[in-house]
Amino acid sequence: MALPTESLHTRSFTPTLVDDRAVSLCSLAPGSRATVTDVDASTPEGHRLLELGFLPETEIRVVRRAPLGDPIAFYLRGGQICLRRSEAARIRVLAADPESQI
Amino acid sequence: MTTAVAAVPLRLGLVGSPNSGKTTLFNALTGLRAKVGNYPGVTVERREGSANFDGRRSVVIDLPGSYSLSPISPDEEVVVRVLDGELNDAPEALAVVADACTLERSLLMLAQILRRGMPTCLVLTMTDEFQARGGSLDIPRLERALGIPVIGVVGHRGIGIAELRRLLAKPEDWSRPHLLPPEEIHARAGWVASVLDHVLTRRPGASLKSDAADRIVLHPVIGPLLFAAVMVVFFQLIFAWAQPAMDFIDAGVASLGNLVHSQLPAGLFTDFLADGLIAGVGSVIIFVPQIALLFTLLYLLQDIGYMARAAFVIDRVMAGVGLEGRAFVSLLSSYACAVPGIMATRTIPSPRHRLVTILVAPLMTCSARLPVYALLIGAFVPAVSVVGPFGLQGLVLLALYATGSLTALLVASVLTRTLLREEAMPFYMELPPYRMPTAKLLASQVWRSTWAFLRRAGTIILAVSIVLWCLLTFPRHPAPVGASPAEASRYALEHSLAGRAGHAIEPLIEPLGFDWKIGIGLIASLAAREVIVATLAQIYAASDQDSSLRAAVQNDIDPRTGEKVFDAPTVASLLIFFVFALQCMSTLAIMRRETNSWRWPAFAFGYLLVLAYTASFGAHRIVAHLLG
To answer: Domain B2-205 falls in which CATH fold?
Structure first.
């Protein structure tokens, strides 16, 4: 895994910093990797994201966008799942490489 | 003891997410003898098959694919109700089917299932792919961590199936978990992580082959082009490849009819047998090659994994009309038949999206229209090449499919913006790795669907054929003295009940360019679209014994005008009518069942009839105008 676990551990000691650096999953460029920090599961549909495996501490790779820009395919927990941007926006992540944000 | 156990069949439920290999496993355990029905009160498909596990008779119930026991779709609700024992034929034991590669996700649902306290075992599928992707798993440790039996199989190769059968024979002996997993999702995730911590010694990597293929299939430019190419080739194949088999059946049916005429004494019964039964059923059986080919291509695309990619590529377009990618899969299934297409909408969580998809599904060109299109295109569109291997006939067919599909999107767009407005619902979809389905799985799926079509031909169409033959034959009027045999039979036909009904609606359909004979066909096709072909076969067999149906419609002359009945404007108008009109009892019945009222089937029938009439009228005028 290309995830910089060291720095993640360091961050986990300073929770306020984690929240500051967390971004929306839909803002990441294809190819980038990230770790889920928080999911808005206030509705049954949002809760479904958790059941699909978009859970805190899950490592995610942004695989690609569809030819028309939406939906976006993610690799997580051994399989690929695609979400629309509006769904991906419910998921906050820590990008492994902050540069990957677009 | 053993005999007592063997007397009552064991009821075993298969639970798992979509794409987990559940269907392959179900087929491997039960063979081809699956019984398909519905759950009582709801319309979710229920499949069960009998099996013999190590001498113990069993019934295997294939529960609908589900991602979680917190249901958000009708399919998932059924799974929960079955597990709760609310539906009377609940299974006594469960086999949870999970793709070994996505075990991290599947265990989230397994935890919920274990909490139900039923005897449960875990079947890991695709273990070959798991290993090929570098994964490594300690199954005995997983058994100890979960407290239930775990077994790895490769369903399509039959590896591990014998061992699985031995295990499934004795659910009484299965170990049970000592501690139940937690219910709350974050706690469950923690439980999954701790289980896998000691078990999953190496995680599988992403499927490199699938990733490489996706770089082409989902490429921003190549992807949509490939999508279009797949659609074009799809329809060319259906039209070109099935032709030899169809010609063969056509010749067979014709010679069987002639044989009956030549061997049996002339009379009412012989006419009934040759012109009613054989011609009627034969004109539907002839389309079995085309329909089998269509189902083969549909299932092949689905089993390979392209269907999900197509939904991924097209989702943005579907979002434009207020629907989602899964609606596309349902609409694509409707190309085979609107009935399974409408049933496939049950995976759509939003009730309104579902309703809109159901209402536009009949606009997708189903296989029952193919006989009509095939007859008219085959008879009236010249078989010339346009570009390379692509002939004019195939392109006209493609244009008809495109007209129906685009109208479906247009109507959906109007409905989601007006009558059936709703907040956007979530869209999520799995993109499974590409997998080559085995010939056996493909054959069983194609056989089931084609057989269902044939059974329809054998029941509805047979019944309609008999009724029609009677309507076309009675009351019997003696022909005027001195008439030739052809004139005599035409006279009899015109004065039959059907002939009178056709004449009665002629003023209504004349603006569309249809005569009373097409009118009879349209009335008969209210039962099912393909019936019009059987009807025309009867009408023309009644008028002319010798020529085949295709030649008969080509040469039919209107006695009043002296011109051909099927001229270009009429052919265009009739084709367009069939693109839109909802002439199918089965579709109306399934709509009634799925929406639980006659309101929506009535609405669909009405709006599609108006659409069909208007568009046919327009097509007739435009083509007539273009031809001067």
So the answer is: Rossmann fold (3.40.50)
